[in-house]
Amino acid sequence: MAITGKIISVTVLLALTQAASAADLPVKAAAFPAPLVDWSGVYVGVHAGYGGGMKDWTNQQLNFPAQGLLSGAQIGINKQIASLVFGVELEGAWTGISGSQTVTTGSMGPFFLGTVTASGTSRIEAMASVTGRAGLAADRWFVFAKGGLTGAWEKHSYNLALNDAFGGAIVETLEAREFRLAPTIGFGAEYALDGRWSVKAEYDYVALGTRTAPLTGPATFNGGTLPSFRVNEPIAQDAIHLLKVGANYRLGTVAVDPIYPRVKPASGADWTGAFLGAQGGYGLGHMGRSTLVDPANPGRGTYDMKGWLGGINGGVNVQSGVLVFGIEGEWMWTGMRGGQTLTGPDPFFGGTAVTKLDSSIDWLAIASARAGFVAGDRLLIYGKGGIAVASERHSASTVEPLPAIGGLVTSSISGRATHSGIAVGAGAEYALGGNWSIKGEYDYIKMMAQQHTDTGLLTINAGLATDQGNIAPGVDKVGQTLHLFKLGVNYHFNPLPGAVAARY
Predict the structure, then answer these.
(1) Alpha helices by DSSP H, 267-311
(2) What pLDDT is stored for residue 420 in this prediction?
(3) Where is the Outer membrane protein beta-barrel domain (predicted)?
């Protein structure tokens, strides 16, 4: 299952934990209840999760997703002042985040005269981070954002096999290890159980960037040893996504500081707590494919995307006065797609090439932090910002007659990519009776330019000679923007009418 398929599941875990403890939580009170927990103090804990992202080998034109499990431990310290919580956390994890891609091009026919098979593998073996955390606490909930630095220990391997039609064979086997230090941001929610234990779920984004890996190793020609090869390969990892669940144990006993009393929520609906929901809507966007863009021909290689979307969402809110802060994860299947047909003359052979482009978004996920305010007794108005991830498919098919020689060239290529970008949005949510609410929302997504490798077949019919071979015609760098319009319904595990007497 892809990395972002877990965004909702970590929220569900926290929500079910709260539901199991719901009998201990007050629904209504004439006065603000005494705090149930103070987050100040030192804690230790463990975590496990799933992570992944794209690995882009620039020179070798290999672009593939890497993903896998991770597990580790953390230690940190918090200080709570009124409803605000600040802290520092040190975290380490072993990971199995890895991926690979193998691309074969050419054939033994009269036009290609040989084949080349290239294979690349990347693995993140371990990660460590130091981050600052800040957030808002209410009842048993603590919603936080975090930022800091992450270090990653990585291993890369590359294998190349070249075989020509005349019996020659070259084989290379290269490896490299490296350490990367990168900025990281994230957000999450933690729920206090009875005693000193708490459970948490969080999302982290790590921008490992581009770094040159010095791949070295032996090579052979027709079985004979050649001098060792060294290939300096730039490898980009602009977006690594981590989803984690964990448990913490607070050391010592910390009393609530009476100097800084908690801030009461506003009268009316109390939005504090976990929620799950469903949503649907429509998306519009614009796609650009770099290898086909022609400045002299505006619009070439760029086209519109549109279609339906629908899925599930879940999150946690914390309310302090009229202010509401929260986190949310969303997963949507989509029918968004678009395409373009291009024509162009071939002055050498005298024909006209016709190329059909097609792109589709299979699924789209968003992890975001939300902040807003309560208007009246039941209306929540909010803004949001976070990270979007999409699984996409791209294809191109070309037919080109060759009138000068009475031949025909056809090709069909396709590729997949996991696209990452920035998401911002705004919406309004209205509390109905009981535990239900309805919402309307707009999101804008700006995807980072993402490389992907298209592979397929090229068939040449040149009269007396024919050939068919595998091709990987360069790296297509895709960029896009999306506009999403959504309606949804949420179920809140705490009944919304909190009925606190006074507004802060």
Answers:
(1) none
(2) 95
(3) 21-210, 279-464
Distance from chain centroid for Cα 105: 30
438, β-bridge pairs: 430, 489
Q: Tell me, what amino acid is at 146?
A: K
Q: Enter the tokens of residue 231.
A: 């290939």
Q: How far apart are CA 39 and CA 176, in angstroms?
A: 43
For position 19, what pLDDT does the model report? 45
Task: Report strand pairing: 337-346 vs 141-164.
Answer: unpaired
- Tokens 């927990």 found at: 37
Calculate the alpha carbon distances from 406 to 343, 355, 399, 402, 462 in Å.
20, 20, 14, 6, 7
- For residue range 293-304, list pLDDT tens digits in order: 777 788 888 999
The SS3 of residue 290 is helix
Alpha carbon of 6 to those of 218, 222, 373: distances in Å? 41, 48, 29
pLDDT per residue as tens digits for the range 472-492: 876 778 889 999 999 999 999
Cα 59 from Cα 155, distance rounded (Å)? 18
The answer to whether 453 and 37 have CB atoms below 8 angstroms apart is no
Q: How far apart are alpha carbons 115 and 441 in whole angstroms?
A: 52
Residue 57 β-bridge partners: 62, 235
Contact 197, 21 (CB under 8 A): no
pLDDT of residue 345: 82
Name which residue leads in pLDDT, 259 or 351: 351
Decide yes or no: CATH 3.40.1710.10 for domain 264-504: no
E strand or H helix at 15: helix 7-20
Q: Count of CB atoms within 10 A of residue 197's CB?
A: 14
Coil, helix or strand at residue 19: helix
- Beta-carbon contacts of 105 under 8 Å, excluding residues fewer than 6 positions away, are 115, 116, 469, 470, 471, 472
CA 164 → CA 112, 114, 222, 225, distances in Å? 9, 4, 11, 18
Give the integer Cα–Cα distance in Å for 224 and 110: 27
Tokens 């297509």 belong to residue: 476
Tell me: pLDDT of 410 over 50: yes
Query: Where exactly are the structural domains of the chain?
Result: 264-504
Q: Is residue 418 within 8 Å of 453, Cβ to Cβ?
A: no
Terminal Cα distance for the chain, rounded? 45
- Say if CB 138 and CB 126 are below 8 A apart: no
**Is residue 254 helix, strand or coil?**
coil
Burial class of 235 by CB neighbour count within 10 A (0 to 12, 13 to 18, 19+): buried
pLDDT at 151 over 50: yes
> What is the average pLDDT across 96-117?
90
Question: How far apart, in Å, are the Cα atoms of 256 and each of 83, 84, 133, 151?
Answer: 11, 13, 20, 36
Tokens (6 digits) for 441: 């929302």
Residue percentage of the chain with pLDDT more than 70: 88
Residues 6+ apart with CB under 8 A from 180: 151, 152, 154, 208, 209, 211, 237
Look at residue 254 in the predicted model and tell me its pLDDT. Answer: 64
Between 137-151, 211-225, 234-248, 335-349, the lowest mean confidence (pLDDT) is in 335-349
